[in-house]
Each structure stands twice: as C-alpha cells, then as structure tokens.
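Report of the visiting student (M.T.), summer placement. My assignment was to run the structure pipeline on a short list of targets and document each run. The first record concerns Translation initiation factor IF-3.
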Amino acid sequence: MAVCLFNYVNLNGGAIISELMINEQIRDKEVRLVGENGEQLGIMSVKDAMKIARDANLDLVKIAPTAKPPVCKVIDYGKYRYELARKEKEAKKKQKMVELKEVRLSPNIDTNDLNTKMNNARKFLEKGNKVKVTLRFRGREMAHVHSSRHILDDFADAMKDIAAVEKPPKMEGRSMSIVLGEKR
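After the run finished, the structure tokens were exported:
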C-alpha cells in the first residue's frame, strides 16, 4: 500500500498540483466507489471502501475530490502515477514549439540578395516557424525610412502564397520589422 500526499500533474500545458489522497488520508464519511475494472460499486462508507481495496491488495485513491460525494477508485497507486507520468510525457512529445526566426535586410539591398533572403524565409515557414523580417537603418538611412517601407511590403507580397502577415510593419528604434506566419 502506497502513501502519497501530492502528485504533480501537467494538464493543458500548465503545471497543476493536484492533491490525491489515498488510503487512510481519505477523511470523508461516504464516497462513490469505482472498482479496479471501472465498474460502479455505488456509494458506501470509507471503511467499507478501504476493506474492498485491502481485499484486492490495492489502494483506495480519491480521484474526484470536488464531486458530491467524492469519487474514489480501487487501483494500484504506483501504476496509476506511472501511467499519468507516461501520458504527460507523450503529450509533451506531440507539442510543437514554434520558433521566431529573423531575416535581416538593409534599405539598399540588391534583388538577388533579396531573393536569397526570401528563400531562407520560405524554408523557415515550411518548417512551421514564424519569420520576423527586419529592415535595419544605419546613419543617413534614417532620413529615408518612409521610402524604404515598400521593401517589407514587397517581401510580404512575394511570400503571400505560403505566409500571412501577423504583425504589420512597425518602427522599433533604428529598425522596421514585420512578422510573417504560416498561412492556414
């Protein structure tokens, strides 16, 4: 018979600490009991439920403490914890992290260089990442910011077959940037 106060469970991406009371920690008068195979055994006193769990050489675990009456299940607690950890690990594997890749341009970029940058951005988008296209201004280039915005607009237009503009062009200090995401 196992005794544990806390079980760390990760649901929907956030770490939630759920207190799973087992065996003698359950202090309720009556509980709804679920058998080891999932069958409903009905509402009974905790002593009777504990007796059923001991006879099966398993643990009595309170799985739904907020229900009226609380729901307890007759299971092997160690195996239950292992299954929860395994499910959490599987869910974590299936999550995909979306990265923000950056492509840097300058106001006087040549067309071949721009095409190379577009190809790089296309590869990033095909892998499922977002792309931040940054147009950096140095020195006297700051005087012609308004006339350089078309470079970002042209970049977005050239990528519109696989990308959608998530954030429009915005000036941040000495650079103007736009964020492109995969088209849905």
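The chain has two domains: 7-94, 100-182. Residues 77-94 form the longest helix (18 residues). I thank the supervising group for their guidance throughout the placement.
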